[in-house]
Specification:
single chain, alpha+beta, 15-stranded mixed beta sheet, four-stranded antiparallel beta sheet, about 15% helix, Polymerase/histidinol phosphatase N-terminal domain-containing protein, Pol/His_phosphatase_N, TAT_signal, DUF3604
């Protein structure tokens, strides 16, 4: 993504020059919002809760960079922490704000890495056109400031039943005509080396990516699972109606994503939201190449508070890595800090392992902000091949609880990316 890439999508299907490919013709005077009320308008309505938009102005003018911990890990070397939001919208799909203003807003708010990911779809909403795709790339290139601020172009593949998938670092984009199912999108992605993708708000749409049906050819490029989207913790999404935890379903299926947080901004104050999702990435430098390298390595954590630093190792292996442990004691080190704003704040660590409908919690460790927590947990690969650390505030409830008495029914602050017990 270092320069402008030609767009090859527009002419592939012999589309009419008067209505660019991927665009819905809008009668004069009818805005994009009005389309949502029309036939088939249920596609995107679930993505637009009014409560989320009502909070758009609460943080305007208050940069989140004012609060937070240092950028250097206390337990690893060679990388620095950057704060990222990789899922944002503009008026080029179903957002309210001008794309020209988005990157500047996110930089002003204290984010180090930001992406625009407008919807690409054929139904109910006027998604990205080929010219808007090129504009997004031009805006990202103009805002990109290597070493200081990384601006990225992406898109959100959007299916009304199967779910939404973000894609970054491709020269073209795919809507439902080009890729009509998750498996079709994985095949499309496999033909674009370097392209990276994420399962968005997992479990919100009933089909859940064909129930996270595994595609080995796309495993390495599927680098994200949103655990925080807006203000929501998705750990138990759908559990109350009989579905498995999206985390459990995704990881048990064989996928190996990092865990991420995003604001999924549809308003006009990108980046200025306390309490909404964001990600921490551990990068060698703040450039596109280094950001994508960190995403591929799964060196990231999900959170919904600004200025948080989370780094973790298991037997010396950083989160996102492979332990090659069959069975035995595994020593974890967790560096957890949000700076002076959280001095002395009690926090809790849950060690998540595979379950059926909900993760099994094999240990709970009390800790305090601003320290390295050192603990050992016995793990056995016969119980499943992944482990995740969830960090919570035990004084607050989980707004989407799981089984009665489950240790994760408190308020999630962060998730590490998983470790895997075998290659």
């Amino acid at each position: 993504m270092s320069g402008h890439h030609p767009h090859h999508c527009h002419h592939d299907h012999g589309s009419d020059d008067d209505v660019p490919y991927g665009q819905v013709e809008v009668p004069a005077g009818l805005g994009r919002r009005a389309l949502l009320a029309g036939a088939g308008g249920t596609l995107m309505l679930a993505a637009l809760p009014t409560a989320a938009r009502a909070a758009n102005t609460t943080m305007a003018g208050a940069p989140t960079a004012a609060v937070g911990a240092g950028r250097s890990s206390l337990i690893t070397q060679g990388t620095m922490l950057v704060h990222a939001d990789m899922h944002n919208h503009t008026v080029m799909s179903d957002g309210d704000g001008s794309a020209e203003a988005a990157f500047a807003s996110m930089r002003e708010a204290g984010l180090d890495v930001a992406a625009l990911t407008d919807h690409a779809t054929l139904f109910a909403i006027d998604g990205l056109s080929s010219s808007e795709w090129r504009t997004t790339g031009d805006l990202a290139n103009a805002a990109n400031d290597p070493g200081q601020f990384t601006a990225i172009r992406g898109f959100e593949w959007s299916h009304p039943l199967q779910g939404h998938i973000n894609v970054w670092n491709t020269s073209d984009f795919a809507d439902l005509l080009r890729a009509g199912s998750p498996s079709s999108l994985y095949n499309w992605l496999a033909g674009r080396p370097g392209g990276l993708a994420s399962f968005n708000h997992p479990g919100r749409e009933a089909g859940r990516f064909n129930n996270f049906s595994f595609n080995a050819s796309a495993r390495d490029q599927l680098v994200g699972l949103e655990m925080f989207n807006r203000t929501d913790d998705f750990l138990f999404e759908g559990w109350s109606s009989g579905m498995a935890s999206p985390l459990v379903a995704c990881l048990n299926a064989g996928w190996r994503p990092a865990l991420t947080g995003v604001t999924d901004e549809h308003g006009t104050t990108w980046g200025f939201h306390e309490g909404k999702g964001r990600s921490g990435l551990w990068v060698a430098e703040n450039t596109r190449a280094a950001v994508f390298e960190a995403m591929v390595a799964r060196r990231s954590f999900a959170t919904r508070v600004s200025g948080l630093r989370v780094d973790a190792t298991a037997n010396g292996v950083r989160m996102g890595g492979v332990l090659n442990v069959t069975s035995g004691d595994v020593r974890f080190l967790l560096d957890l800090d949000r700076g002076s704003a959280w001095d002395g704040k009690p926090l809790r660590i849950q060690v998540l392992r595979p379950g059926t409908s909900a993760p099994t919690v094999v240990d709970v460790i009390d800790t305090v902000n601003g320290q390295v927590t050192d603990f050992t947990v016995p793990l056995n690969v016969t119980d499943g091949d992944w482990v995740v650390l969830r960090i919570s505030d035990p004084s607050l409830p989980n707004g989407t609880p799981g089984p009665a008495g489950h240790p994760c029914n408190d308020f999630a602050v962060a998730y590490t990316s998983p470790w895997w017990l075998r290659p």
